[in-house]
Design a protein that fits this description.
This protein is mainly α. The chain has helices at 4-14, 19-23, 27-40, 51-69, 81-92, 104-112, 121-136, 167-171, 178-184, 198-208, 247-251, 254-261, 278-282; strands at 151-155, 161-165, 189-190, 225-226, 241-242. InterPro entries: MAVS (IPR052787).
Length: 291
């Protein structure tokens, strides 16, 4: 699938417009432009976008425009009210694709597979995404929308450790509905100890990801691209990640790529992990007495 930014640029080319012209538009003018885009956007073969593809395109387009125009990085920006309405109308013309819920058996299989681990940048990235999506993922709030400061590591009186989302930072997320915020701040990801511990994996990832970008004006993404120069056992101190957003998350979804790599028979989507029972999934992480 084409990236949202490329689809938008191709559509602009057909309208004899440039990105520079888009950058000069007022917000009402941008709203009108997006109305036309949602009505007219097609795949390169001229066929309409499917409902799930349209959703990904719109989400990617909002992130792209937020970087280009420095506007709020949310698809529900109130200034874009008319285009939001057109987008909703275009979706309503297509039957929604049902979301397949991740089964507990497949969750257990994925959790124990070496594709999710802590010994290399890609497996650690996938493990952290997988576990955050299960414990804290929600519609319009996936791990790629998170940031390091939102995580709070807590130790109970009995020395058990867990991670929660910071209440104030969740409350400040204007694109989330109140009921979703209420659910998110009550969730927790428990430490299990041992090699599968999700809390230790998150702590390791936070220590490995890059905190600054080579371009000071760029936003440093939370989920970062594994460094192709990194190799197992290298004697050189090569960073694990590059401060770049990964196309894997934009285009196909982590879980889809992961299922293909581990040869799972079912094809899940990112939302497959959000609609299941978090408590049941948590049972897939065996407890260990060693931390």
């Amino acid at each position: 699938m084409l990236e949202a930014s490329q689809l938008f640029q191709d559509w602009l080319t057909g309208k004899s417009m440039t990105l520079a012209a888009v950058s000069a538009l007022s917000m009402p003018q941008l709203d009108n432009l997006l109305c036309s885009f949602y009505r007219e956007v097609r795949k390169r073969d001229g066929t309409p976008l499917k409902e799930h593809v349209m959703k990904r395109v719109r989400s990617g387009l909002m992130r792209y425009l937020s970087s280009l125009l420095k506007i709020a990085p949310t698809a529900i920006n109130p200034v874009l009210q008319r285009s939001n309405k057109v987008y909703t109308e275009m979706l309503s013309k297509q039957p929604a694709r049902p979301t397949l819920m991740l089964t507990k058996a497949d969750c257990t299989f994925l959790r124990g597979h070496n594709a999710l681990g802590t010994d290399n940048p890609l497996s650690l990235l996938r493990k952290v995404w997988f576990e955050l999506q299960i414990h804290f993922g929600a519609r319009r709030f996936s791990p790629r929308d998170m940031w390091p400061e939102i995580f709070v590591f807590i130790n109970d009186d009995d020395d058990s450790e867990y991670v929660m989302l910071d209440r104030d930072q969740v409350a400040a997320a204007s694109h989330l509905r109140f009921d979703v915020k209420h659910i998110l701040v009550r969730r927790r990801m428990n430490a299990t100890g041992g090699p599968f511990c999700p809390v230790n994996a998150l702590r390791l990832y936070l220590s490995k990801r890059e905190r600054t970008s080579s371009n000071p004006s760029d936003t440093v993404p939370f989920l970062q691209k594994p460094n192709p120069l990194w190799s197992q056992g290298s004697q050189l101190p090569v960073p694990w990640y590059i401060a770049m957003e990964i196309s894997l998350c934009k285009n196909h979804g982590f879980i889809r790529e992961l299922c293909e790599d581990v040869k799972l028979s079912k094809v899940y989507t990112n939302m497959s992990l959000c609609i299941g029972d978090v408590k049941q999934y948590a049972e897939c992480w065996p407890q260990s007495s060693s931390n």
